[in-house]
């Protein structure tokens, strides 16, 4: 059932002795690689989804259908591992926010986060972000909470604010507290500096707070242990896979252009790759059905 993933995530959040570590993935391959390492949860990055599906920057150009479809595919690779997914601004007014929440629940997503930028948003670690009024933002949260109650399912709602840089800490905290009063489950203060990182968890107790680990971004480069020591209950690494793939592919194509050959890496045969994305499971499924497709191996 779609609510099982949310229930699992709520169990993890209830354990105050640990922090939930979520590697950032953006497609089936990166998700499968992360799943093999045994993380408790995954995070679907909106920036990575936009870059991989559209070849575009994270500037609010992706649609609900594209984000929901990607989230549904990732969430159902292994439904026992909760997926936290970016939902940007909810993709419109209150009706679109309600639709977004409903579609994410139906997709099997365990949690989503909604932010207070305008729909023409930008990555949270770019400069000169704009935010909507607190009233409009809380209207989004209210629409999300109401949609969840009507959806015959569950999803963990993460309230994100980008107001820190333009409006200051007190205004940002006010927005998050308002969202929590309406029914948000987790708070997400985007773009925290070292100063705010030391205050936000204490100021929002007992609500769990998420830390967004973006190397080279606005916030400090905290390790999992650093974040846990500060009181954060969840940490996402949205650029983890995207940055690694960018670096590796950049080097590979440059080497091909320069030398006319490709570097052969150990463990990178077609079989190795297909095993990561479920080759053995597919063979077992066919055999259990009485199939003969792979009786002589592959």
From TrEMBL:
InterPro entries: ICL/PEPM (IPR039556), Isocitrate_lyase_ph_CS (IPR018523), Pyrv/PenolPyrv_kinase-like_dom (IPR015813), Pyrv_kinase-like_dom_sf (IPR040442)
Pfam entry (one): PEP_mutase
Keywords annotated in UniProt: Pyruvate
Gene3D superfamilies in UniProt: Phosphoenolpyruvate-binding domains
Highest taxon above the source species: Eukaryota
PROSITE patterns: ISOCITRATE_LYASE
Protein species of origin: Byssochlamys spectabilis (Paecilomyces variotii)
Descriptive protein name: Carboxyphosphonoenolpyruvate mutase
Family stated for the protein in its record: Belongs to the isocitrate lyase/PEP mutase superfamily.
Substrates-to-products reaction catalysed: (2S,3R)-3-hydroxybutane-1,2,3-tricarboxylate = pyruvate + succinate
GO molecular function, one term: methylisocitrate lyase activity
CDD domains referenced in this protein's UniProt entry, alphabetically: ICL_PEPM
